[in-house]
Amino acid sequence: MKLGDSYSSDILDEKFDVIMIGSGMSGLTAAALLSKAGKRVLVLERHFKVGGWTHTFKRGKYEWDVGIHYIGGVGKKDGILRILFDDITESRLEWSRMPETYDRMVFPDASYDFVSGRENFINRLSEYFPKERSAIEKYLKLVRDCNRASRRFFSNRALPKSLGTLAYRPMSRHYLKYADRTTLDVLSSLTSDRKLIGVLTGQYGDYGLTPKQSSFAIHAAVVNHYLYGAYYPVGGSRSIAMTIAPVIEGAGGKILVNTQVERILTHRNRAVGVRLTNGDELTAPTVVSSAGVLNTFGDLLENKTLPGIDMEKVERSCSHVCLYIGINGTAEKLGLGGTNLWIYPDYDHDANVKKYLADFRSHLPVVYVSFPSAKDPGWEDKHGDTATMEAISLAPYDMFKKWEDTAWKKRGEDYENFKQELSSRIMRFVYAHVPQVEGHVDHLELSTPLTTRDFLGYSRGEIYGIDHSPSRFRQKWLRPHTPIKDLYLTGQDIVTDGIAGALMSGVLTTSAILGRNVVKDIVKRRS
User: Fold this and answer.
1) CA end-to-end span of the chain, whole Å?
2) Tell me: the pLDDT tens digits for 89-114?
3) Separation CA 466–CA 208 (nearest Å)
4) What burial letters (b/e) apply to 441-479, b meaning 16+ CB within 10 Å?
5) pTM to 2 decimals?
6) Domain range list for the chain
7) CATH of domain 5-62+76-88+234-309+477-526
8) What pLDDT score was predicted for residue 347?
């Protein structure tokens, strides 16, 4: 099934209530919810595929997702994330449960399983660290308390500015007690066991900042997200956009690909439409940007100085390389399970990254290995006797800066040689920890921060938008409303990263546009 139409100037004759810039998780969520509220939405996507980080790509008989490796919180049909997904897809999206051990932390001397369920998690970690059970229990209590406090904090961002300002302190105070502290600071107050801290922070790659730098709020969000089990969309991550699109199109909306916005048009401090790179101008009463705050305020708006917007208070998140691996032989035959592997050279993540940034040829600070074909129960029906893997590592944009003025597939022999070197380094980890695939690898392809830049629109290949540092959560302007009337933001920058953050940001933005609690609408539709 093809998603999205290519741009045609015929669209100039049509009228839309909302123009949505970007077709990632947040943009599609807001577009679907606005469609259900009777709005006609035009979604504009610069890439030739719909879905943002949820799209997939193929090479012959192989197919890989580019950003979705597992999703939590969708196992219970009455859980909020499942309710939201069911609403925006009209229950067409199906989920496959991953193994009880969803993540495995691998260190040189030992491996540690993260298992589904709060009590199971406590019991398993206590087997590894029998003297630290009390610390582990206190840790998960803080994780729970922080996430409960987050609901009021983020709800405040959907309120009109005057009301939001008035209610900010009582709605935010409790959450900021956690968000203001680093992950390492919180964990160090619970235990002095450096190995335990290294294990508990082993998912830092899911938000891109090491324990000394990250806010405990984002760490708690990720831990809580997967604590009760992880899931994978049946049919791969492209199923997400495929099941949302009919809701938008069924309400008269349209999704256009190969359609890049050059400028958000404003008149008397009011958003009135967009100008495309081909010069065409499209108008609508409401414009929503899911392109990220750096792109929105840094590139898409003529006026770069807006009241209350302080771009110097936020930093870009990390960039990465991903090695896409195609394998002859099924996951079952090769014994490839769905458990993700986080492979580390040492328990001190901050020291590992610091050493790597000082010398890119030093030991890779992390290699994350995912097995998408093993997670999708429908894989063999579509792809036959094959399997896929993905291996990801940190890769600062500066590693590839010398090629930043080149185009995709035209970066030169030295670029390809450098990619080959990186691929070989990563495959050494793969063969060491998944030795049964040696001799079965049929295809290797490495994406770089330049790939992310060219296909996802992040100018320095940042994977998570802006950094989730303590100072990020103090930026009151990271909210759906902007200083420009009828211009709204959605996306991971106004909530948190990942599929859940993007989904919730779409809900918040829709609530802000409609001036009502959209979650109540969704619950009412469900009953």
Assistant:
1) 31
2) 999 999 999 999 999 999 999 999 99
3) 10
4) eebbbbbbbbbbbbbbbbbbbbbbbbbbbbebbebebbb
5) 0.96
6) 5-62+76-88+234-309+477-526, 118-227, 315-456
7) 3.50.50.60
8) 98
